[in-house]
Write a structure and sequence with these properties.
two-stranded antiparallel sheet; alpha+beta
Length: about 80
Amino acid sequence: MTDIVKRALTRKRVQRGRVVTEEPNPRLVWGVKFAVGMTVCLSALEVAHLVVLGSWSSEIFSTITGLIGTITGVLIRSHA
């Protein structure tokens, strides 16, 4: 299993002395990958906005913050 996102979302628990592995839903894995990709793209957009216009865009930053919160919530919830 070389997929980092899938490995991060996989649950491992002990049941009757055995380790049981529960793989995540593929739709969840693709959703997290999309959210991470959009965070990277929006961060690049924020840097371009700073370089070209010389000012901070609070709208882009709030979107980045929302996506990071969503990703963190999914990762924490998947291991709860």
